[in-house]
């Protein structure tokens, strides 16, 4: 029973020693490939010296038969797993195989090496993706500025026309003009105010509209640019749409009323039968 147990202990120690040496050499080689700080080839004497200080063998003396046997079996196993060569001094050296060392590289190192190996493909693809994304963003922004600018422009026209009409009424106290900056702050959200391009689009549309006068005016001691709607001009687009919609509704009601009247007149009167 004691002999079998000793064989089992030796096998466990041999396996642990092989894993320890493999990890030690492969980690050092991986550091060299990634950061240039490790080593590649390790002499057999250095490995034997490291095994003497390994915790699995430190309980045995260097002359203990179990100690010598375990080191011998460990070196045989290492020779079958690791890459070996003989240097110029006739010393045997060991190195972690290239395929095995890949498993010991950190993820960041593997990622950097993969990028460097595929740089000729990654760079054009990234440039294409960035360029396409920028083009899509530019198109969407142009569409947004155009749509939002026209929407704000129609609101400006409605407000200016309403102010002009109210100022013409009897005993009206409001002014026919509106300060452009106040109109901007009223219509734009706080986020939109940080983007001057949106309101610039509105100003361009207003400048092209002959129904709106733009001139400086002294308001509370400060010079302000004001906009004023010309009442004698055409109706604004908002009021025109409302007028057209109202006319259509009225026309539809007249047609329906006329159709009901004709159907009532054509309906035959009931006959009374005499018996």
Automatic annotation (TrEMBL):
Q: Name one GO biological process term.
A: nuclear membrane organization
UniProt cross-references to InterPro entries, sorted A to Z = Heh2/Src1 (IPR044780), Man1/Src1-like_C (IPR018996), MAN1_winged_helix_dom (IPR041885)
Task: Give one GO term, molecular function aspect.
Answer: chromatin binding
Q: Where is the Man1/Src1-like C-terminal domain?
A: 102-229
Name a single GO cellular component: nuclear inner membrane
According to the UniProt record, where is the region Disordered? 242-275
TM segment ranges: 119-137
Q: What is its main location?
A: nucleus
Q: Where in the cell is it found?
A: Nucleus inner membrane
Q: Where is the composition biased (Basic and acidic residues)?
A: 243-275
What keyword terms does UniProt attach to this protein?
Answer: Membrane, Nucleus, Phosphoprotein, Transmembrane, Transmembrane helix
The name under which this protein is listed is Man1/Src1-like C-terminal domain-containing protein
């Amino acid at each position: 029973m004691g002999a079998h147990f000793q064989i089992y202990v030796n096998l466990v120690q041999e396996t642990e020693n092989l894993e320890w040496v493999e990890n030690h050499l492969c980690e050092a080689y991986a550091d060299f490939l990634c950061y240039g700080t490790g080593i590649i080839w390790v002499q057999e004497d250095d490995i034997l010296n490291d095994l003497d200080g390994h915790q699995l063998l430190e309980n045995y003396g260097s002359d203990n038969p179990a100690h010598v046997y375990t080191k011998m079996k460990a070196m045989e196993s290492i020779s079958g797993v690791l890459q070996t060569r003989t240097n110029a001094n006739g010393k045997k050296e060991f190195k972690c195989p290239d395929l095995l060392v890949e498993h010991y590289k950190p993820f960041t190192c593997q990622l950097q090496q993969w990028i460097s190996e595929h740089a000729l493909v990654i760079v054009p693809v990234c440039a294409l993706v960035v360029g396409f994304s920028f083009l899509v963003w530019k198109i969407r922004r142009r569409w947004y500025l155009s749509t939002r600018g026209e929407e704000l422009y129609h609101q400006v026209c409605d407000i200016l026309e309403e102010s002009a009409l109210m100022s013409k009424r009897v005993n009206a106290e409001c002014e026919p003009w509106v300060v452009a900056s106040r109109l901007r702050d009223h219509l734009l959200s706080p986020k939109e105010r940080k983007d001057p391009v949106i309101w610039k689009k509105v100003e361009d549309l207003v400048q092209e509209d002959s129904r709106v006068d733009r001139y400086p005016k002294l308001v509370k001691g400060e010079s302000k640019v004001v906009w004023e709607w010309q009442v004698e001009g055409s109706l604004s687009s908002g009021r025109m749409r409302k007028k057209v919609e109202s006319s259509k509704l009225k026309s539809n009601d007249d047609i329906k009323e006329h159709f009901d009247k004709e159907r009532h007149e054509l309906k035959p009167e009931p006959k009374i039968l005499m018996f």
